[in-house]
Design brief:
Elements lengths: L1 H17 L4 H15 L2 E8 L2 E8 L6 E5 L10 H4 L7 E5 L16 H14 L5 E6 L1 H12 L4 E7 L11 H8 L10 H11 L8 H13 L1 H13 L15 E6 L9 H5 L6 E6 L6 H4 L1 H25 L4
Parallel strand pairs: 3-4, 3-5, 5-6, 6-7, 7-8
Antiparallel strand pairs: 1-2, 2-4
Length: 321
C-alpha cells in the first residue's frame, strides 16, 4: 500500500510539474516516471570506444532478459512492457549504436554489424546466458544473434520482426514498391501523424505541444534515419538461411493488423525453427509492446518462464562431463 501511495504522489507531482515545462522537459518527466515504475535505471558503458546506453533493472542474480528496439526507436519503447518483467528477471533494454543516447559511429548500421556490436555489449557486461527479445529491426538482429551465438540464448522472442519474405506483401512494402516514398521516414510534421497511423491501430493521443515536439524531433532526425534505412536495405541479410541454426525455443509475437510487416511472416518462419510458439494479438498493429504492452508482456512472461524450466531440466539431465 505504501508503494501504491508513493506511486500516486509521484505521478500527481510529475503531472502538475509537467504543465509548466517545455515539451522536451515534459517528455523527460514522463519517461522518468515510467522508468521508475518499471524499476529501471539509466546506465552506459564503453564498448569498442563507443558509448552504449541502456536501462537496467530487476534482481542482479536473476536470469537476464535483453530487449532490442526497432528502427527509428530506442530503449524507451520497452518501458511499459518491461514493467511486468523486473520483479523476477534482470532486465536490460539497450540503445543500439546510432539510436537513443548511444553514440552514432561512422560506418554501417546494417543488421550484421549491429549484431556484432550487440555481442560485444553483452560480453562487456559479462553476461553468459540470456533471454533475447527484439522488435521489428531489433527482432532481425536478435534472430541473427541467436543463430550466431546459440550457446548464449536460453530463449528468443521475435516481435513483428524484419528479415523474412512474407507470403503476403504488407501495405508498407506495397507503398515502397508501387508509389515510392517511405512512411517510416518523417520529412514534415504532417508525416508524423501518417507514421502513427502506419504503426498503430489506435494511435496514442498525445498532448498537442508534446505531439508537435515529437514531430519536430522526428523531422530533425530524418536524414540519419534515412541513412540507417539505406544500410538496412543495401546490406540486407535474409533470415531464412539463419533460422534453422537457432537452438533456443522461439516465440513469434505479432499484431494481426500489422501494416509494416505482414503477420504472414510467421508462415515463412515457423517451419524453419526447431521449437516455435506463436502468439497473434487481435486488433493490434506493428508495435504490440507499445499498443498492448501488458498483454504482450503477459504472453512473454509465460513463454520465458517455460523456457527457463526447460533449460533447467536440460541441465539437470545432461550427462556429467
Amino acid at each position: 500500500m505504501k508503494k501504491l501511495i508513493l506511486a500516486v504522489l509521484v505521478l500527481l507531482t510529475a503531472a502538475g510539474t509537467a504543465l509548466y515545462l517545455s515539451p522536451a522537459a515534459q517528455l523527460a518527466v514522463y519517461q522518468g516516471v515510467e522508468q521508475w515504475r518499471a524499476g529501471l535505471h539509466a546506465r552506459s558503458i564503453s564498448v569498442n570506444d563507443l558509448k552504449v546506453s541502456y536501462y537496467e533493472g530487476g534482481p542482479q542474480g536473476a536470469e537476464t532478459v535483453l530487449l532490442v528496439h526497432g528502427f527509428g526507436a530506442d530503449k524507451s519503447t520497452w518501458l511499459w512492457f518491461a514493467r511486468d518483467l523486473t520483479e523476477r528477471y534482470h532486465v536490460i533494454a539497450v540503445d543500439l549504436p546510432g539510436f537513443g543516447d548511444s553514440d552514432r559511429p561512422n560506418g554501417s548500421y546494417d543488421v550484421g554489424t549491429q549484431t556484432e556490436r550487440l555481442a560485444a555489449f553483452v560480453d562487456a557486461l559479462g553476461i553468459r546466458r540470456l533471454h533475447l527479445a527484439g522488435h521489428s529491426m531489433g527482432g532481425h538482429i536478435a534472430a541473427l544473434y541467436a543463430a550466431r551465438y546459440p550457446e548464449q540464448v536460453t530463449s528468443l522472442t521475435l516481435i513483428a520482426n524484419a528479415g523474412v519474405t512474407a507470403p503476403r506483401r504488407s501495405p508498407f512494402f506495397q507503398r515502397l514498391e508501387e508509389q515510392g516514398g517511405n512512411p517510416l521516414l518523417v520529412d514534415s510534421e504532417p508525416q508524423f501523424d501518417e507514421l502513427l497511423d502506419w504503426l498503430f491501430v489506435a494511435p496514442p493521443q498525445l498532448p498537442e505541444r508534446l505531439h508537435q515536439y515529437l514531430a519536430q524531433r522526428a523531422v530533425a532526425d530524418s536524414a540519419h534515419q534515412r541513412e540507417v534505412f539505406e544500410h538496412l536495405r543495401d546490406r540486407y541479410v535474409p533470415l531464412e538461411p539463419e533460422l534453422p541454426r537457432i537452438q533456443a525455443p522461439t516465440l513469434l509475437l505479432w499484431g494481426d493488423q500489422d501494416r509494416i510487416l505482414d503477420v504472414s511472416s510467421i508462415e515463412a518462419m515457423q517451419p524453419l525453427l526447431k521449437d516455435a510458439s506463436v502468439v497473434i494479438i487481435k486488433g493490434c498493429g506493428h508495435a504490440p509492446i507499445l499498443e498492448r504492452p501488458q498483454e504482450s508482456a503477459a504472453d512473454y512472461l509465460k513463454f520465458i518462464d517455460q523456457a527457463s524450466l526447460q533449460a533447467a531440466e536440460a541441465r539437470r539431465t545432461a550427462p556429467r562431463q
